[in-house]
Structure prediction request, 583 residues.
Amino acid sequence: MTKRKIYTVFMAVASAVPIFLSACTQETQPLSPVSYTLMIYMCGSDLESVRGYASANIADILKADIPDGADVIIQTGGAEEWHDERIPDAKSARFSADNGNLTPAGGSFDADMGESGTLADFIAFGKTHYPAEQYGLILWDHGTGSNGGVCYDELHDDNYLTLPEISDALAESGLHFGFIGFDACLMATYDAVLALDGYADRLIASQELEPGSGWDYSALSALGREDFYSILPDKYAQKQAHTTYYTLSSIDLTQSERLSVLMDDICALIASMPEQISPAMENSMQFGSGERGYADSGLFDMRTFAYQMGMNEMDFSDMIYTVNGSARQDAFGVSIYFPEDEDALAVYGEVCGDEGYLNELNDYFAREPAEGAVRFDLRGFVFDDKMSFTLTEDSLRYVRSVCYELHIIGEDPEQTFLYSIGTDNDITRAASMFTVDFEGRWVWLGESLLHCRVYEERNGLTLFSARVGIGGNDCLLLFSYNGNTSALSAEGYIESGVGGSRILPLTDGLELEILYYDPLVGEYVAEGSAVWGKDELSVANLPGGTYQIVPKITDVFGHEYYAYTALVDFDGTSVTDIRISAG
Prediction:
């Protein structure tokens, strides 16, 4: 498995860890067999060191009415600092949740939470010291989906567990789990189903980014009961009811073969109708932010993708139980990964557990035309007072998305400036002709325009992200616009980072820098600020001036193509002139 880092120094230490752990746990006598042992592998990362979310969830666990005969054990680690003073900083440690108390179960030690051996050792510890008739396992932290993983250890350069590494740890343990859960983003994937198949009866995970506060651990009162697998998602939905993006799936892994059959059908369609991949990707529900460096996952809803490929209605309700927010109400419960380019495909080749699907992906990428997948017939012209362009007929099958970048052109006493205020996908297609429907309306936060982009539009609901600065960090503000009600709804924000980001809450009084991209200098610049709760989101007309429209096409292989640009004079109400420029 090729990973981001090779930890040669750690490996020398790791070989000594089992001896050290044995020494620090010798005084803990094996307990009598109990009915249920839940193991929680809690990699705190910046979620804990900066925000204290792991400590908050531990507090919730200690408040839970855990059934008699059940043990809950927790391994902490992966964080520079813990907000719960009982947990050592910059170390790993093990605890049991006993009658509301956090009881040490051995001393602190050095361990990389992103290594398979660390997870395997924790499972072995639970098996030896807390033997039970049933077992459960939860992995807690950031998650980044199929081509990433989970449990990003900030003490070890954000090293993380890949799905194959998790499989290795489970195989080494020799245990079968009633369920394995990911209290983390983006882990309800077909690849996770395959990785865990045979090691657990259930997978509980989210297709979408998770809110920072995570699961509702009062659900542990139902631990060991069959209805636990619906109670936990239901309580999560109640906890996150103020949000709209949330998803959580409870997947019966004993029926995983049904998903493999569905994937076989999808593969057959990819082989026979490759031209359908483009519209399938464009119209399917996609998870994450869609922007590189900000939890861009490459994950599509499996059922939506299958529908878009031409498959009929399917019913998996007896296999997959889901709870979804209103922005994700049709989510199936399982995602599939489609690589954005050949580099991502190469990484996926080490993760994918479905050889047939991987072969189809390799065959598809091998079909990329040598001269470029997308070619223009007419790169730019004015039609009906709007910027238009046409593609060649054979290019259409490769188009993944079409949008336009919008730039403000202005002058001050010293220079002419050009700021990008984002992208929009309000483009009409008729056969091979595309027309930009620019009407001069944009999203504002208070008195400032937002640099925003559309990353999904389905059933009248448009999902946006906008680049802002919060607390000195580059962030994406997530919000939606309901075309049926004209209502804007803010979801929260995510931060950039190697380990992705959970959705963080917007609180009254939070200060936001408004960031714009300056293509002349190639970076984002701060131009204005806003205070959340005081300044409101709105859709309103742009100020009068000259704007530059730059249509952009992204193909299914990850390449970008630009049409000619259009210079548009806007008087604050309507377009007064439009000119095509080859530059």
About this structure: Residues 378 and 390 are 5 Å apart (CA to CA). The longest helix spans residues 256-272. The chain is about 20% helix and 35% strand. Confidence is low (pLDDT under 50) at residues 1-33.
